[in-house]
Design goal:
By secondary structure, the chain is of the alpha+beta class. About 25% of the residues lie in helices and about 20% in strands. A hairpin with a 2-residue loop joins strand 7 and strand 8.
């Protein structure tokens, strides 16, 4: 068996959140001469012999053709190419914050958080990107030119040295993941989870917390829904407590408002409660 015959895919097992940052162990599939062998193992104990052909996050189709850089193996060699790809993400802008043109950052509008730092060091352009803990060491051990973040928190940032040894696709994946990490927020995930409740169904605070990636933040779900910025798009009236009970009368515009909205969805409300066995969202 030669390495030319083998292709290994590293896939993170889905949990209900479908979110790589909150998923379980890593599974892998080995493709040997068109035969797939499936298996799984814990990230920390995964054998390193296979790292020469790892294709990270192959299942995450949202990175396919994402931004101007796209995929297809095209190299990413210059600062300009890195900045152009970073600026292809929504609501981003470029800045040189230190009055030093060597340091060029791409930030997110509103929060002003940087997800891509670019600078020249030791004759090479370097990129600093934020990274989730489960991918941090894997990237570093796969590429000698991906190291602990220079001048930044080494637990949460990696530095990519553009010396031609890191594939363009993987550089783009790391930049895209950095953008995702910087723009992520619990409230945003909660609102996206609530949007998934279909008409004619309700979900509990705990279920929404689980869908949003953290089953322990049911209380945060309630706080986020009380501050719902877009009630027309985020149907928070479809969220009830673990007993199927509706929110207090102050919510949703006054006495009986939530019950009225639910009945308009075809949901039966009796004594301020919904039958979860009948109308509860199924996972």
């Amino acid at each position: 068996m030669s390495k030319e015959d083998i292709e290994i895919f590293v896939i993170r097992i889905y949990n209900n959140s479908r979110d790589v940052r909150n998923s379980g162990d890593i599974a892998f599939a080995v493709k040997y001469r068109n035969t797939c062998i499936l298996g799984g193992m814990n990230f920390q104990t995964r054998s390193r012999w296979c790292q020469f052909v790892i294709v990270f996050n192959r299942w995450r189709s949202k990175y396919k053709d994402r931004g101007k850089g796209g995929r297809g193996g095209r190299a990413l060699k210059t600062r300009e190419e890195a900045l152009s790809y970073g600026l292809s993400f929504p609501d981003t802008y470029q800045e040189a914050p230190f009055h030093d043109e060597n340091w060029q950052l791409v930030r997110v509008k509103g929060s002003k958080k940087a997800f891509l730092w670019t600078y020249e060091r030791n004759g090479y352009i370097n990129l600093n990107v934020k990274v989730s803990p489960e991918w941090r060491d894997l990237w570093r051990s796969t590429y000698k030119s991906v190291i602990a973040g220079w001048h930044q928190n080494k637990e949460h940032w990696n530095t990519i040295i553009l010396d031609g040894t890191v594939s363009g696709d993987d550089i783009r994946r790391m930049i895209a993941e950095s953008y995702d990490l910087v723009t992520d927020s619990p409230s945003k995930r909660i609102y996206e989870a609530v949007k998934k409740i279909p008409r004619g169904c309700v979900a509990t605070y705990g279920q929404i917390a689980q869908l949003a990636g953290d089953k322990k933040m049911a209380r945060a779900v309630g706080n986020a829904l009380h501050k719902n910025p877009d009630p027309d798009a985020v149907p928070c009236y479809r969220v009830v407590n673990a007993k199927g009970e509706l929110s207090g009368e102050f919510a949703f515009g006054g006495s009986g408002a939530q019950a009225k909205l639910l009945r308009a969805d075809g949901i039966e409300v009796s004594d301020g409660r919904v039958d979860l066995a009948k109308f509860g969202m199924k996972f």
